[in-house]
Amino acid sequence: MSNENIKITFPDGSIKEFPKGTSSMDIARSISKGLAEDAIVAEVNGKLVDLVKPLNEDSSVKFYKFGDEEGRKVYWHTTSHIMAQAIEELFPGAKFGVGPPIENGFYYDVDSEHKFTEEDLKKIEDRMLEIAKRDLKTEREELKREDAIAYFKSKRIDPYKVEILEDIAKNEDVVSLYHQGGFTDLCRGPHMPTTAKLKNVRLLSVSGSYWRGSSDRQQLQRIYGVSFPKKKELDDYLHLLEEAEKRDHRKIGKQLDLYSTHEEAGAGLVYWHPNGAIIRMELEDFWRKAHLQGSYELLNTPHMGKSWLWETSGHLDFYKESMYAPMEIDEQEYYMKPMNCPFHIMIYKTHLRSYKDLPLRWAELGTVYRYEKSGVLHGLLRVRGFTQDDAHIFCTHEQIESEIIEVLRFARMIFTALGFEHMNYYLSTKPEKAVGEDALWDKATKSLIAALENEGLSYKVDEGGGAFYGPKIDIKIKDALHREWQLSTIQFDFNLPERFDLKYIGEDGKEHRPFMVHRALLGSMERFFGILIEHYAGAFPLWLAPVQAVVIPITDNQLEYANEVYNQFKNSGLRVKLDDRREKMGYKIRDWETKKVPYMVVLGDKEKQSGNITVRAHKKGDLGAFELNEFIDSLVKERDFKEIKS
Q: How many Å apart are CA 276 and CA 259, to the nearest integer?
């Protein structure tokens, strides 16, 4: 091989030679014109780099398109820079905080005397597309941090970039700037090679934000947007946003009278109305039955504990900002619990445990309290008091893999029964700062991997993304709108068993430290209820519906028969209402349809004489005539069909 050539290894294992200094873009062009057009970013030797970066050594190369998560992030990140450039051109004097890609799009925090309106967003969109047509190349420049500080102090007079360089990046000797035309931004990159790759963009909203999240700092304007290579992709996404707005759990919660919050009585606290409380009762009953069949034991623990408990657990060191201020009781400080785990540990310590006692699987619907800033409170999805569906498993080192397998199976059963069929799995490994011996981390991580692979589950690895006290598996579900929600966590913990000196007597007669696993499935009843409302758009399956059927007599002539029908439904354990209002039939049907009741039983003279019923179903309309007992039996079967397997 010539000294002027380098070897490039592709994901399929094939190897090809290229001249030294060849860029990833050149390599993509050599493969196909389509790949060169679609490629957003390259991964070289495991690191994402600009497509235009020259390669001067043997390397493994992989390309990412918009369809890949890595490609989308770079596409959206570059779009945020294009938006900043458009704002700078349209509103001179604007200064910029940070502009990262997020789960669905991007944002940029802007400091401007001009207050942005919806009309302004359209102007910015148009200028962004005009910048895209300029086909401006994105150029990376690396320079000493001190030189970058001087640049932003003199040429741009941008205090936010200066603060980032002087504070956040203070340990970095060299930083990178990205130039596109006359616009320059501080950024790690990578970016798309040209602005021309931006094809379709929509700026969605503008809201207030504080610099670096502190209410004591400058308030900025955060502009959110999203962009796509194809117009259909943008149209589909905007349609999804419209549908999500219709399904907003706050709107449906009010419409169906499910819950409320009252800031004047305490922000972030949920009041469950009768309709919502019925759904919660059904969820909790299902949860308890499933856990008992899954060989869990149920616990109930206090709502508060002495400061000693939280000092020992480490929460007062690591979590105090999210805990409520202490209360003084008998000259002792007590805290409302932010977690259930220390209480479960106290129960564990009431006996000397043997290896024959393990595994212990303890579950609790435990209400906890965490201080969240008022600005992040959001309906049921972000609250200050909530009930965790918590569980902790105490087991031997030998049992851990089989226990994780059972948790994965259990989670899939629960979510399937609740109507969620699509799940994604994420493995987070040891971070740079961690507690626990390397051997324990290795054993735990290998057990998580083995459990996932044993179940044939594909997963993504977040290297270094574990908590300081152990590796974990996160399970995310997809709802009816294909949105991903983080719910379940299977989390090892080497910290608490050590801090609380947990032990068991092994088969060898010696003391051993048990493995402890934190395990939540639904996360919290409040947040999961919000997700469930939006997943079903309030049209819950029969077993969850607060009102399962309503009996509607057409006139008072059928009222006596309607009461007989109502009582038969009620005696069968179904949740039923009798609508004897003196309103027009069309109004009643529209009203119950709006309330998303699964079935309406309509009774006229024909039904009264025959002893049968006519049934309407939500969104389906008239189902026709039924024999009363036969229909009730079919509803009971529909209500009771939930798959629970141990």
A: 6
Query: Per residue in 376-394, pLDDT tens?
Result: 889 999 999 999 999 999 9
CATH number for 549-640 (one of 3.30.300.30, 3.40.640.10, 3.40.50.2300, 3.40.50.800): it is 3.40.50.800
Task: Provide the terminal-to-terminal Cα distance of the chain, rounded to the nearest Å.
Answer: 61
Tens-place pLDDT, residues 466-490: 888 899 999 999 999 999 999 999 9
Q: How far is CA 84 from CA 72, 220, 637, in A?
A: 18, 14, 58
Indicate the pLDDT class of residue 154, thresholds 50, 70 and 90. confident
Query: Which pLDDT does position 212 carry in this prediction?
Result: 87
Give Cα separations from 635 to 27, 539, 617, 641 (angstroms).
62, 16, 12, 10
Q: Is the pLDDT of residue 644 over 50?
A: no
pLDDT at position 240:
94
CB distance 418 to 555 below 8 Å: no
CA atoms within 13 A on the CB side of 600: 26
Sign of CA dihedral 106, 112, 114, 115: positive
Architecture of domain 5-64: Roll (3.10)
- Kindly report whether the peptide bond that precedes residue 302 is cis, defined as omega within 30 degrees of 0: no
Fold of 340-524: BirA Bifunctional Protein; domain 2 (3.30.930)
Task: Confirm if 48 and 73 have CB atoms less than 8 A apart.
Answer: no
Mean pLDDT of 422-449: 91
Q: Which amino acid is at 591?
A: D
Q: What is the pLDDT of residue 216?
A: 85
Name the residue ranges covered by the structural domains of the chain. Answer: 5-64, 69-239, 340-524, 549-640
Mean pLDDT calculated for residue range 298-323: 92
Measure the CA–CA gap between 202 and 121, rounded to whole angstroms.
Answer: 9
What is the average per-residue pLDDT within 231-254? 96
Report, as residue numbers or ranges, the catalytic residues. 341, 370, 388, 390, 392, 472, 518
The pTM score is 0.86
Residue 395 pairs in a beta bridge with 515
What DSSP string runs through 538-583?
Answer: T---TTT-SS-EEEEESSGGGHHHHHHHHHHHHHTT--EEE---SS
Residue 643 has pLDDT above 60, yes or no: no
The reply to whether CATH 3.10.20.310 applies to domain 69-239 is: no
- How far is CA 407 from each of CA 70, 344, 413, 448, rounded to the nearest angstrom? 30, 18, 10, 11
Spell out the residues 6+ positions from residue 69 whose beta carbon is closer than 8 angstroms to its own: none
Tell me how far apart the alpha carbons of residues 183 and 84 are, in angstroms, rounded to a whole number: 8
